[in-house]
């Protein structure tokens, strides 16, 4: 059993085949237009542009807020590497900030101090990128005022958080730009793809243009600047439309998976589920934090037991300030992300985890707990 496999079937097949038969196989087409409209409506955002990956959407968002050579972008250290890589693509420098151990999301107190410090040192901060880890929204009630006070725009890396909410507001709408990923392991997949959302039509129009090699709207190929080949294909958009219709059902299944883990670990000392107590989460991944002194075992020992049963699990993201590709950048760290990396394990969380497959996975976890009791 994989950690977070694609959940596709007859509904997806029908729309993909229909898109092929319609003749709109070439880059763009009516399914892409419709997918952008439908996703923007679902999220409650004015505009959306479909792109080839979440990483591409992040790159375009950062260009949209003016990140580039000479500027810095604040990024949480506990994230997937794409968040930091997209900053370097623009020529800006990432600066890492540690997390709140309860959720793994950006530590807002630390962020405020860092913004003060960067301003004092005369650095131009182009953006703060907030990540909604495992589908739990960052603490926007405190984060947005802190960034507004510093005059710094927010880009929301909601790659993992499609369908999540916080205080009734949808993930993807908290920053100037929101970014979604439709990679194979995300809650909604187009096999590979992404979406950039924004309320400002001019900013979206510019991102859309940059995503199509910055082609000017004239008959011949005219380019005033260097763009990118980042558009999502019409065929993949058809797959996305079918997935979007099933989004709520897929979230419900992931939530049921998380509740089953919560029940299993409720009476196990030294364990907790990362980000628990945030009901708006789409429950994309369930990660378990294990304090070895209290539990009597380590997260990687559970991982080893699951691997022996052919069940995939994964350590939490290794923090960016520990990654060889990024460790030369400035980092404001408390050790919280390092500790989560050392003590957490992400467990199979997919919406296909039902029936006998689910029984096998939860049975293996129970067996481990019984042996360790
Ligand atoms: C998946 C992910 C991305 C990148 O999305 P791709 O579609 O794989 O390029 C960016 N940020 C976070 C937090 C992610 O989880």
Automatic annotation (TrEMBL):
The keyword Ligase does not apply. The modification N6-(pyridoxal phosphate)lysine is found at residue 186. Keywords: Pyridoxal phosphate. One of its GO terms (molecular function) is pyridoxal phosphate binding. One of its GO terms (biological process) is polysaccharide biosynthetic process. The active site is at 186 (proton acceptor). The keyword tRNA processing does not apply. InterPro entries: DegT/StrS_aminotransferase, PyrdxlP-dep_Trfase, PyrdxlP-dep_Trfase_major, PyrdxlP-dep_Trfase_small. It comes from the Bacteria. Its cofactor is pyridoxal 5'-phosphate. PANTHER family: DTDP-4-AMINO-4,6-DIDEOXYGALACTOSE TRANSAMINASE (PTHR30244:SF34), TRANSAMINASE (PTHR30244). Belongs to the DegT/DnrJ/EryC1 family. This is Pyridoxal-5'-phosphate-dependent protein. It comes from Micromonospora haikouensis. The lineage of its organism: Bacteria, Bacillati, Actinomycetota, Actinomycetes, Micromonosporales.
